Write a sequence for this structure.
């Protein structure tokens, strides 16, 4: 399981004050030097955190380091056009509901497969791998295969919310079944949302189909206590199924 560090929260903190500090570019370099496989940015239309300049800068940094850049976003033309220009190693297509605080659902299948198909074709023609955000337990993953999607990213918030409760096993089983079905269809499997040092190790041990996790909010929060380099190191341990010490947050 590979770790892609999502730096939206670093950009959000910078934007709250203006100026250039903290710098997503410096944070990206630090994360990569600490061993992260890649960097993720979700560029939203409202520019609440990541800006187009961040996308360009970090794409260049990842190319310099020979690391993966994962650009997340919706189907709006400015994002698809930019992705086709800079060619991230991976583009993750995520449905967006106006006013949402953060991503909270996957594509509706099979209905949305035709909706994402034109973007998938353009992105793949440009040279990017394409992933689609799906809910755990999503049916008709074959509809994504039919339009050329390479991977899915399983929305793991339900598992994270259930972690430590009697519903944990059932929530993990939904993730596991979705990953197994995707693998059966030849789709790669990514995962992300609300993963942290406590719930990630079990996911890594029990869902071996997951190739990559994208983690932002919890990782950046932990870095406030531990420092970014040490935090990335602990998350790398967690991706191997180990159980590193998590900072106390209460």
């Amino acid at each position: 399981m590979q770790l892609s560090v999502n730096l939206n929260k670093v950009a959000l903190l910078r934007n709250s004050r203006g100026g250039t500090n903290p710098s997503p570019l410096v944070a990206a370099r630090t994360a990569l030097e600490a061993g992260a496989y890649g960097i993720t940015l979700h560029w939203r239309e409202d520019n609440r955190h990541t800006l187009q300049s961040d996308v360009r800068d970090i794409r260049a940094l990842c190319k310099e380091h020979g690391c993966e850049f994962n650009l997340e976003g919706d189907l709006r033309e400015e994002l698809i056009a930019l992705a086709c220009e800079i060619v991230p190693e991976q583009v993750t297509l995520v449905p967006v509901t106006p006013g949402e605080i953060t991503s909270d659902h996957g594509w509706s299948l099979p209905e949305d497969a035709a909706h994402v198909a034109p973007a998938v074709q353009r992105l793949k023609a440009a040279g990017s791998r394409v992933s689609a955000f799906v809910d755990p337990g999503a049916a008709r993953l074959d509809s994504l295969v039919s339009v050329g999607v390479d991977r899915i990213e399983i929305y793991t918030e339900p598992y994270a919310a259930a972690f430590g409760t009697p519903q944990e096993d059932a929530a993990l089983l939904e993730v596991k079944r979705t990953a197994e079905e995707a693998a059966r269809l030849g789709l790669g499997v990514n995962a992300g949302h609300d993963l942290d040092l406590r719930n990630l190790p079990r996911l890594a041990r029990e869902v071996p189909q997951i190739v990559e996790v994208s983690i932002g909010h919890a990782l950046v929060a932990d870095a406030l206590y531990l420092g970014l380099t040490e935090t990335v190191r602990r998350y790398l341990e967690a991706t191997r199924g180990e159980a590193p010490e998590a900072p106390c947050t209460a």
Remarks:
- The mean pLDDT is 95.
- The chain has one domain: 2-239.
- The two ends are 29 Å apart (CA to CA).
